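Journal club prep — side note

Before the paper discussion, L.F. wants everyone to see what a predicted structure for a comparable chain looks like in C-alpha cell form. Sequence:
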Amino acid sequence: MAKTIWKGAISFGLVTIPIRVYTATDEKSFKFNQLHEKDQGRIKYKRTCSVCGEEVPFDEIVRGYEYEKDHYVMLSDEEVERGVRSARTIDILKFVPAEEIDAIYWKNPYYLVPEQTGAKAYALLRKALGDEGYVALAKVSFRDKEHLATLRLRDNVFVLETMYWPDEIRAADFEELDIADEIRPQELKMAQSLIANMTDHFDADEFHDTYREKLEELVEAKIQGREIAVVEETGTATVVDLMEALKASVEASGAKEPKAGGKKKAAASKSSGAKKKKAATG
C-alpha cells in the first residue's frame, strides 16, 4: 500500500478539495553496499565536527547558510519551514495548454487522491479539465520548498508534477553549437529518410532496463555459485564518412517492420499495388 507523503487541498477559485499526495514513481536501480574487501564489513560514515573532531548526534546538528567563506548564519527548523507547514494548499493560478510548457521544467510526479469529503469536487474538476484539454498551473509548498507545478489528468487521477523555476534552468550556452558545417542536400534527405523509417508510436511496455536485468542475473549466478562467462567486447568500427553512415542506417532501418508513423508510405504502396493489379487484369 502506497504511503501518504503529504496532506493538503487543491484550491480552485473558492472551491477547496481535500487531497492526499502519493509518489507516482518508484525508481529502480541496482543498489550496492560498500564493504571492506578484507573482511566484508560494512563501511559506516560518522558525522564528525571539522573543528573539534567529535562525532555529532542528530539533536546537535543545526542548519547554517554560508554567506561568505567560513561565515554562517544559523536557521532553526521552524524558521526554515515557516510559511510551508501552514500553506497546505495546491493553489491553482491559471489553466494553460500543455504544449506551451517545455518538458525541461518538469521534475517529480505525484498522485493526488481525494479525501471522501472532496470526492465530488475532485470529480467535477476532473471532468471540466478533461473536457477542455488544459493543464492547471499551480504553486505548492512542501519538503522545505515552494514549487511551481502542473496539475493534469492521467487516466482517472490527477497528477501533480513539480517544476523547476525558470532561474533554475541552465542556459544552453555551448560554443560547439555555433560551429555550423555546411549540410549537403543529399545528407539532409538521407537523414530525413532515416527519421521517417524510425518513426513510430510510443509504447512504454516496449522498453525495459536491460542493464539492471543483467546485473540481477549476475548477482543470482554468483549466489548460486555458478561460473560467470565473460564475453570480450570486440568493439565497433567507427564510420568516418557521414553519408556512408546515413546510407547504412537507412538500409538497416528500412529492412525492419514498417513503422506506424509511416502510414502514408504504406497507403501509397497499397494504392500502387492495386493499380498494377488493375492494369494486369485489364
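L.F.'s comment for the group: The CA atoms of residues 28 and 208 lie 11 Å apart. Keep this in mind when we get to the figures.
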